[in-house]
Design goal:
alpha/beta; 5-stranded mixed β-sheet
Length: 312
C-alpha cells in the first residue's frame, strides 16, 4: 500500500533533516508522527519515527536540567484536534472555556494564558479536542508552531472591537508564514465581542474581506452553537455506525473516518484481520443514495451517518 505522504508530513521531515539541536529534532519528529497518514502502508515508517523519537528523548533526559527546553505537545483525543490562536485579549480562554468547560483562567487583561491548555468539546455524539494557546506574538516559541502544525484544524480568533482589527488580521498570517504555516491551513476565522457596538462595526468591516467570518460573543454564548457545527465540519471527518446481521445499529460509538473513506478503511479501523477477511458489506444511508441494506464492495465511499453491516 502506498504511503501517500501529505505536504504537512514532508515539510516536517525536511525540518528534521535541517535540525541542528536535539530539541529541534524532537519537535520535528513529533510533527512527523502527528501528520503521517495512519494506515498499513506507513506502519514501518511510524515505527522508525517512534524509535528515533525515543532515542533523542533519552539523550535529552541525560542532560542537566538547566539545558532542557520546555516543550508542549498534545496527544490527539476524540474525533479531532483543534487549536485556537490569536493575539492577547481576543478572548481565546473564554471561548475554550465556553466550548469545553476546561479549567482556563479568564481575566480582562492580556497574557492570562501562559501555557497551552486543552479540553474536550461535546458535539452531538462525539468529543472534539480544543487547545487554548498563549497569545500570539511576533516571536513565538518553537513549540507554539508545533501545536498549530499538529492540529487537525485551526481557529484564528480576533477581537472585533479592536482599533487595529485589520492590522491584527494580516499580522497574524505573517507570523504563521514565518513558522511555515500557510494561510490555507487556517480553517475558521472567528470574530469575538460581536455583542458590543465596536464589535458590530468591526464585524461588518471584517466580513467584507472575510465572507466566511463566524461572529460570536464567547462570554455570553452568542454564536457558539453555529461555531460548534463549523468546527465539526472543518475537521472533514465522517461518522459511520456498525450493526451485526439481524440486529440494530450501535449509535453510541461511531467510527471516525476522514471524508471519502471507504468501507475497507472502516474495516481497518476496527481491526486489521477484520479488514483482511472482509468479503462485502451492506449499507444503510440517510441520504438514500443506495437502497436499504444494499450490498457494496470494499471500495464503496462512505458518508456521514452511514450504517455498515460487515460480512467476513
Amino acid at each position: 500500500m502506498p504511503a501517500n505522504l501529505t505536504p504537512e508530513y514532508l515539510a516536517a521531515e525536511e525540518r528534521f533533516r535541517q535540525a541542528k539541536t536535539l530539541e529541534e529534532k524532537i519537535f520535528a519528529l513529533k510533527e512527523m508522527l502527528a501528520t503521517v497518514p495512519k494506515h498499513k502502508g506507513t506502519e514501518k515508517l511510524q515505527k522508525e519515527i517512534k524509535t528515533k523519537l525515543s532515542k533523542y528523548q533519552k539523550e535529552l533526559q541525560k542532560r542537566p536540567a538547566t539545558r532542557r527546553t520546555i516543550f508542549y505537545h498534545f496527544e490527539k483525543k476524540g474525533a479531532g484536534q483543534v487549536a485556537v490562536f490569536g493575539f492577547a485579549n481576543a478572548g481565546k480562554s473564554a471561548l475554550v472555556k465556553t466550548l469545553t468547560r476546561a479549567n482556563t483562567e479568564v481575566a480582562p487583561y492580556p497574557f492570562t494564558t501562559k501555557i497551552p491548555v486543552d479540553g474536550m468539546m461535546p458535539y452531538e455524539n462525539v468529543q472534539i479536542q480544543i487547545i487554548d494557546t498563549p497569545p500570539l506574538t511576533t516571536k513565538p516559541e518553537p513549540w507554539y508552531f508545533h501545536i498549530l502544525r499538529s492540529a487537525d484544524s485551526l481557529i484564528y480568533l480576533l477581537d472585533l472591537a479592536s482599533d487595529d482589527l485589520l492590522s491584527d488580521y494580516e499580522k497574524g498570517f505573517e507570523i504563521l508564514e514565518k513558522g511555515r504555516i500557510s494561510r490555507e491551513r487556517v480553517s475558521l476565522i472567528v470574530g469575538n465581542k460581536i455583542d458590543t457596538e465596536e464589535g458590530k462595526v468591526g464585524g461588518e468591516f471584517l466580513r467584507e474581506i472575510c465572507p466566511n467570518l463566524v461572529a460570536i460573543a464567547a462570554e455570553k454564548g452568542l454564536g457558539i452553537e453555529e461555531l460548534k457545527e463549523k468546527i465539526f465540519f472543518s475537521l472533514e471527518i465522517i461518522r459511520v455506525y456498525t450493526k451485526p446481521p439481524q440486529e440494530k445499529p450501535d449509535f453510541s460509538e461511531p467510527i471516525i473516518l476522514k471524508k471519502n473513506a471507504s468501507v475497507l478503511d472502516a474495516a481497518q479501523k476496527l481491526h486489521k484481520d477484520f479488514a483482511r477477511n472482509l468479503k462485502y458489506a451492506r449499507i444503510w444511508s440517510k441520504d438514500n443514495r443506495v437502497f436499504s441494506g444494499q450490498r457494496v464492495e470494499s471500495s464503496f465511499i462512505l458518508k456521514d451517518g452511514d450504517i455498515i453491516e460487515f460480512h467476513v
